[in-house]
Amino acid sequence: MNSQGDGQFEWKVLGESMPGEREPGRNLRLAVLISGSGTNLQAIIDAIEDGKLPNTEIALVISNNAAAYGIQRALQHKVPVIYLPWRKFPAGAFMHEMTPNEARIAGLLQFFRVDLVVLAGWMRIFSPPFLDQFARRVINIHPGLLPPEGTGETYRLSNGKTIPVLRGLNAVKKALEAGLNVTGSSVHYVTAEVDAGPVICQQEVPIKPDDTEESLHERLKEVEHGLIVEAIRSFYQILP
Ligand code: GRF
């Protein structure tokens, strides 16, 4: 048995099983991590309720932001939701082990027997020790076009033109500032390098001449709501 924690919040791993070792025939259990409005969370909830994501359930929602509207969405649909304040630690204090924040999340993922972690507007970065534990079990939605393997600085559009890859915060604003005609959204595996993991699915979205950051982000989110469901559906088949 493994026991970890920061003294205030001890957790124990009971047994050997890791998230992802799904018994054949049982539901794919998701954890959806949010920080804000939660429209992508809503898309997942709706797809499950409408039967578009069969054999899938949201085991829990975690928010690092007590004011996130996504919390209300989860509560309205009777999905367990946990507010988990993200404590600050000195830079470099946790180079080779999970931070206490991450240890809490890891404990919750074990406890709720989560198979797949969906970052849906989650605004915190995970460390390599955390991601190593959940390799290929954490996916993210990014409002930008990432190359198929995730790495590289350019993206080839379907029309053959090449555009710069926009990672990190404010990718929608950056697309407008760069004067692009086309951007898009990608669902990708999360790796230690931010927004640089292999892509699961993605879609291009044209930028209109009169687009504002808000109008463009709104259209990107409409696309994301389909992409995230498509990405999750593909997991039910590939997990053991
Ligand atoms: C989405 O645009 C997603 O691409 C980005 O954060 C936004 C979350 O929106 N990572 P919401 O909270 O799901 O409405």
The CATH superfamily of the largest domain is identified as Formyl transferase, N-terminal domain
What share of residues is helical?
25-40%
Principal-axis shape equals globular
Tell me the number of strands.
11
Helix count equals 6
Low-confidence stretches: 1-18
Structure commentary:
The chain has helices spanning 39-49, 69-76, 100-111, 128-133, 171-177, 213-238, and strands at 2-4, 11-13, 28-34, 56-63, 81-83, 116-119, 138-142, 154-156, 162-164, 182-189, 199-206. It has 240 residues and is of the alpha/beta class. Helices cover 29% and strands 23% of the residues. It is globular, with a radius of gyration of 18 Å. The strands form three sheets. It has a seven-stranded mixed beta sheet. The protein has a two-stranded antiparallel ribbon with strand order 1-2. It has two domains: 26-135, Rossmann fold (3-Layer(aba) Sandwich); 142-240, 3-Layer(aba) Sandwich (Rossmann fold). It contains six helices and eleven strands. The two termini are 24 Å apart. The structure holds 5-O-phosphono-beta-D-ribofuranosylamine (GRF). The site of 5-O-phosphono-beta-D-ribofuranosylamine has 16 residues, from α1, β7 and α6.
